[in-house]
Amino acid sequence: MTTDTTTPATDAVQAAPAARQVQPPEDAYAAELEFLAAYDTGPRPPAWHLTPRAVVTFVMGSNGEALKLPDGSASLTISQKFVGERSLVERCVVTLAGERGLLLVGEPGTAKSMLSELLAAAVCGTSGLTVQGTAGTTEDQLKYGWNYALLLAQGPSRDALVPSPVLTAMSRGAVARVEEVTRCLPEVQDALVSLLSERRIAVPELAGGPDGQVHAAPGFTLIATANLRDRGVSEMSAALKRRFNFETIGPIADLDAETALVRSQARGSVERAGAAFAVDDAVLEALVTAFRDLRTGRSAEGWEVERPSTVMSTAEAVSVASALGLASAYFPGDRDVLALLPGHLLGVVRKDDPTDAARLLGYWDAAVRRRAEQGSATWRTLWDLRHVLEH
Ligand SMILES: Nc1ncnc2c1ncn2[C@@H]1O[C@H](COP(=O)(O)OP(=O)(O)OP(=O)(O)O)[C@@H](O)[C@H]1O
Ligand SMILES: [Mg+2]
């Protein structure tokens, strides 16, 4: 299109791209990525945008320290994004540097997807070469499809081929992501076996020509995630399992670290909604404590707690904290946000099994009551709200 045919309306659209609900990490942290590329100029694996050490720093943060460019022209503090062990992230990065597949497994809501996006963005500059695994995922979605209009008009050609995100990653030497790989049918999963071992995809329709095979460029690798609550990782074929290094991601070990994460993420989401975040630390701590007690089956004091069958994930704790933040911003003064907590907890607890409501009541009658009796004002209020859980 020439400039004369461009209408002013198109210009306006190009000048101001629509706001997005979620920024991918390569955009949200573009300044950090650019800085880290200049900060650490050491050797990097083929096609990598950052050194392996800089990738770890991007994910784990610089510990509050402002890093300085070698020429002293700029400095930047890298934010911590993933809360967990640095050694786990280092192992993930080493796996990718060795061009092996990486499989992140764990309970729902443990930041598997987030970590895979962060790693992909840091290594190759995009987290967008993604296939979402579902029961309906087909082999084409992992390999390639066709633009049927072109196919009918011209016959099979490279132009008519529609590459999957995985094929695009292969030809660019980038990182492909396959979300929830175990939800794909086993025969579809197995398409990944040949791709990960031979590092090429045959296109029989173009056989004999230069495009009959698409080869993976150096740097190509794949990060898959799998949820332990879905169809099991154990059901993956042995051949596919051998092509991945497995890393298990667990819940956040430390109460203070989890509370800080819940606070900062909930604050971020309430502020994005245009409101100010005003939930007391005491409320957040009670919320995270209840999640952890129910998740682990043991209270912070060491009392036994009957666990509901559902996972009490950090991701859900963040959603509840955000809901409390929004409620207090939009309905100020209606009532104390603490009063909303039992209802939200009940919603989370009984989503898999309605009988889990009784387990939450059991938690109230044991741990919550004991804390109230020990004189904590927050837990006293929560104990007084026990009736919310009885229906
Ligand atoms: N260890 C953690 N570090 C940082 N954020 C975390 C952590 N654990 C949970 N979160 C929060 O959980 C959110 C959801 O994580 P994500 O969607 O990546 O989880 P997931 O493991 O892929 O879950 P699912 O199995 O449901 O797909 C993150 O955006 C973040 O707010
Ligand atoms: Mg996920």
Automatic annotation (TrEMBL):
One of its GO terms (molecular function) is ATP hydrolysis activity. Residues 1-23 are annotated as: Disordered. InterPro entries: ATPase_dyneun-rel_AAA, CbbQ/NirQ/NorQ/GpvN, P-loop_NTPase. Gene3D superfamilies: P-loop containing nucleotide triphosphate hydrolases. It comes from the Bacteria. Residues 101-244 form the ATPase dynein-related AAA domain. This is AAA family ATPase.
